[in-house]
Amino acid sequence: MSLYEQIKSDLGYLKLDAAAGAFANLAEQASYEDWTHIDYLARLVAIQATADRDRRLAARMRYARFPFHRRIEDFDFDFQPSIDPKLVDDLATLRFIDEQRPILFLGQPGCGKTHLAVALAIVAVEAGYRGYFTTGDAMVKTMVRADHDGTAATKIKTYTAPTVLVIDDVGLIRLKTPAEAAWFFEIVNTRYEKGHPTIVTTNRGLPDWGEIFGDTVVAAAILDRLMHNAIVFNIRGPSWRLREHDSLQIATTDPGERRTR
Questions:
Q1: Which of 66, 121, 156, 254 gets the most CB atoms within 10 Å of its CB?
Q2: Under DSSP, is residue 229 helix (H, G, I), strand (E, B) or coil?
Q3: 8 A C-beta contact, residue 61 and residue 130
């Protein structure tokens, strides 16, 4: 076995697959361009490091279960002027993680709450943090099932371990049992004690949360944790989906037909 073959084999054994795949071509390029040994090693290590980072990022993205991949720069702030783009850009620095600040997006369905919540969480995941996405209804139902199965102590870590948790559509479906409200509080409280920021979207005003949770005391306790040092967006603009629906209606309706109505 030649020295080149031995090195390539050893790289594969060490599971440095990207370096092993690039080894031969990089060695040939090094000889043509007269690289030093340090130059060659630096490039080989960089290829492996990039591959490892990309693989870990892909794994974090799969774990996070985001419903879509949208960016802050994709958001049309002109359509929602009640949102301060400078504040959103500041949040994208992820200072809210260091400062342990929850984020609440309030507004009617379709106004962009989930877009911004997911976009901020994606920035965090790309920076190396663990993130996770769930709806409020799915989260509490999962925990109630886990409690019945005897796996609640393990399952709750799905929601409390990630640095950033997005709880979407809180209040869209009213919680049906005290157990669901209790699990919601347990997750929010645990994250609060750990200093892990939670991002919440809701189409219900905060005074309505007592009705959502079926218990004003529990709702007050949840809001106490979520509102402490929180950043709150009260989005007062219209629905994206209704705008798209109206545009589609205009585009697909025959002008002559409209005139005859």
A1: 121
A2: coil
A3: no
For the record, the structure tokens of 32 come out as: 């043509």
Task: Determine the Cα–Cα distance for residues 198 and 256; give it in Å rounded to an integer.
Answer: 52
Residue type, 90: D
Residue 126 to residue 145: CA distance in whole angstroms: 32
Contact between residue 226 and residue 130 where contact means Cβ atoms under 8 Å apart: no
The closest of 14, 17, 13, 42 to 30, measured between CA atoms, is 42
Residue with the larger pLDDT of the pair 4 and 181: 181
**What's the pLDDT tens digit per position in 103-149?**
999 999 888 999 999 999 999 999 999 999 999 999 999 999 999 99
Q: What angle do CA 216, 159, 203 make, to 5 degrees?
A: 45
- The domain at 72-243 falls in which architecture? 3-Layer(aba) Sandwich (3.40)
Q: Which H/E stretch holds residue 24?
A: helix 17-33
Nearby residues of 111 by Cβ (< 8 Å), 6 or more positions away: 80, 235, 237, 238, 239, 240
The per-residue pLDDT for 247 is: 42
Q: What are 168's strand-pairing partners?
A: 135
Contact 239, 206 (CB under 8 A): no
Question: Would you state the structure tokens that stand for residue 39, as one six-digit string?
Answer: 């130059």
Average per-residue pLDDT for the chain? 87
Which residues is 106 bridged to in the sheet?
202, 234
Contact by Cβ (8 Å): 168, 133: yes
In the chain, where are the structural domains located?
A: 3-58, 72-243
Contact (CB, 8 A) for 165 and 134? yes
